[in-house]
Design goal:
ABC_transporter-like_ATP-bd; binds adenosine-5'-triphosphate; 2 domains; Rossmann fold; alpha/beta; 243 residues; AAA+_ATPase
C-alpha cells in the first residue's frame, strides 16, 4: 500500500504538489493521471525518498521510504530517466544492483525471464531499443520481488507491442496482490490499464475514483476529452505562466 497525506512540495518559483492525500491499494492497477507539469513525478520522487516534502508524509508498506531496511524488497520503481551504463549488459546491470542490495543471483535470472530479456541479457545496453531499456528498468524494479511497484510514464515512446506488454504486466503484478501505481498523461491508455484512477492537476487532487465510475460518468463522450475538461483549469493556469 502507498499512503500519501497532505503531501506538499514548494519550490522558490511555486508549488509543484499541493496538499495531496490519497491511498494506493494493493491488488489493482491505479492510474496516476495529470497533464504535463501536474506534479506526478514530484509526488513519485517524494514517495521514493528522492525529494523531501515541504509538508506532509508519504508511506510505502506502512513506513516512510527512509525507514525501510531493505527498500528494494518493499518498493520497485521505473523512473523516466534511467541511469543505464551504455557499456554494461542487462545481466551485469542487474547483478550489480542485486549485489549492492543483498539480493541473491537467482533473482537476476528470474527477472530477466519475467521481462523477456534472457536471450539478450549479455548484450551491451547501448545496443538496446527503447522498449528493451524499459524492460530492463522494469526488471530492476522487480529484482527485490517488492509488494509495491511504481512506474512513471512507462509507455512514453513505446511502440504498440511495448505498450501492450507494459499493460499486461501491470495487470499481472496487481493480480498477484501487489500495489501498482502507473503514472501517465494519457487518459485513454489508463482506461485500458488501470481499474482505479487518481487524477491531479496543478499539484492538487482532482479525482480519486474507479475507472468504471469515470467511464460511466462520461459515457458517450471521448475519454480523453473528458479528462481534458476535468484538468482544464490546471492546464490554463500552467499556460498562463502564473505558477
Ligand atoms: N527542482 C525543481 N525546481 C523548481 N520547480 C520544479 C522542480 N521540479 C519540478 N518543478 C516544477 O513542478 C511542477 C511539477 O512537475 P512534475 O515533473 O512533478 O510534473 P509531472 O506531472 O510529472 O509532469 P511531466 O509529465 O511533464 O513530468 C512543474 O511546474 C515543474 O516545472
Amino acid at each position: 500500500m502507498i499512503e500519501v497525506h497532505n503531501l506538499t512540495k514548494r519550490y522558490r518559483g511555486g508549488t509543484a504538489v499541493d496538499g495531496l492525500t490519497f491511498t494506493v491499494e494493493p491488488g489493482r492497477v491505479t492510474g496516476f493521471l495529470g497533464p504535463n507539469g501536474a506534479g506526478k513525478s514530484t509526488t513519485i520522487r517524494m514517495i521514493l525518498g528522492l525529494d523531501r516534502p515541504t509538508e506532509g508524509t508519504a508511506r510505502v508498506g506502512g513506513r516512510p521510504y527512509a525507514a525501510l531496511e531493505r527498500p528494494l524488497t518493499v518498493v520497485g520503481a521505473l523512473l523516466e530517466a534511467g541511469d543505464l551504463h551504455p557499456g554494461r549488459s542487462a545481466r551485469e546491470h542487474l547483478t550489480w544492483i542485486a549485489r549492492t542490495n543483498g539480493l541473491g543471483r537467482a533473482r537476476v535470472a528470474k527477472v530477466l525471464e519475467q521481462t523477456g530479456l534472457t536471450e539478450v541479457a549479455g548484450k551491451r545496453a547501448r545496443t538496446y531499443s527503447l522498449g528493451m531499456k524499459q524492460r530492463l528498468g522494469i526488471a530492476a524494479a522487480l529484482l527485490g520481488d517488492p509488494e509495491v511497484l511504481i512506474l512513471d510514464e512507462p509507455v512514453n515512446g513505446l511502440d504498440p507491442e511495448g505498450v501492450i506488454w507494459i499493460r499486461t504486466l501491470a495487470k499481472r503484478l496487481a493480480g498477484e496482490g501487489r500495489t501498482v501505481l502507473v503514472s501517465s498523461h494519457l487518459m485513454s491508455e489508463m482506461a485500458l490499464t488501470a481499474s482505479h484512477l487518481v487524477v491531479i492537476g496543478r499539484g492538487r487532487l482532482l479525482a480519486d475514483l474507479s475507472t468504471e465510475e469515470f467511464v460511466a460518468a462520461h459515457s458517450g463522450s471521448n475519454l480523453e476529452e473528458a479528462f481534458m475538461r476535468l484538468t482544464s483549469d490546471a492546464v490554463q493556469y500552467r499556460a498562463g505562466g502564473t505558477r
